[in-house]
Amino acid sequence: MHITILSSSTRLNRNSHRVALALEKMINEKGEHTAEVLDLAAYDFPVMEEVLHRHPNPPAGLADFAEKVRRSDAHIFVSPEYNGSYTSALKNAVDYLKEGEFSQKAIGVVSVSTGMMGGIRAALAMQQLVLAIFGFPVPQMLPVGQVLQRFDEHGDLTDPGFEKNIGQFLRQFTWLAEAVAEKKQVLVPA
Ligand SMILES: Cc1cc2nc3c(=O)[nH]c(=O)nc-3n(C[C@H](O)[C@H](O)[C@H](O)COP(=O)(O)O)c2cc1C
Which of 63, 80, 95, 161 has a CA-to-CA distance to 52 between 20 and 30 Å? Predict the structure, then answer.
């Protein structure tokens, strides 16, 4: 399976990108699946004026982004909590695409905050977003509180105690993602 990780903070000196990098490393190091971060700060999409398939002059990088999303088997959305929800950059990027890019794929959600609560409201809001785009929400979420104490800027874990939380999340995510991907192969043989 190929997994895309949407890193959705575009803030200068952002912290949640550390978590996206960490998940990418962990999945790739395990070697069973491949993972790739799609960095919304790097894509730098303007506020959506029209959806991609009807856009007369799509923003640079949008077709590439859509293709990467389409080609991947499962997704992880990583977002900080901003005012009780996920980032507008995530909503903006998702709104550009057809629901078909995400539908019938497992989508895991990871929320991030510098505080203790781990941005749980952002995680719950992302679960609603996943339903709206006909994805399969992974019931196990990964709220990451105190991100600065847990990950360095390269995406390396600095709090060994948190490894258990990540392991649990990745196990549940992978289980559902594999089940969905296998079912699709049966329905649509390669
Ligand atoms: C606009 C804004 C709103 C925020 N709202 C919340 C919030 O509702 N709950 C929370 O726990 N932290 C909140 N924070 C703190 C963020 O969790 C913290 O700044 C985190 O590092 C943001 O992720 P980022 O660095 O990847 O942008 C907010 C931060 C910003 C910039």
Answer: 80
Average pLDDT over residues 104-128: 97
Res 189: pLDDT: 57
For 111, what's the count of Cα atoms within 13 Å in the CB-facing half-sphere? 25
Q: Give residues with Cβ within 8 angstroms of 190, minimum separation 6.
A: none
Top CATH class of 2-187 equals alpha beta
Mean predicted lDDT score pLDDT of the chain: 96
Residue 19 has pLDDT above 70, yes or no: yes
Cα 54 to ligand 1 centre (Å): 33
Q: Which residues line ligand 1 (CB under 6 A)?
A: 9, 11, 14-16, 80-84, 112-115, 117, 119
The angle formed by the CA atoms of residues 22, 27 and 90, to the nearest 5 degrees, is: 60
Using the mean position of ligand 1's atoms as its centre, give its distance from the Cα of residue 42 in Å: 19
Block residue for tokens 């029209």: 50
So where are the chain's domains? 2-187
Average pLDDT estimate for 179-187: 84
Amino acid at 121: R
Residue 54 CB: number of other CB atoms within 10 A? 7
pTM of the full predicted structure?
A: 0.96
Residues 6+ apart with CB under 8 A from 68: 4, 36, 38
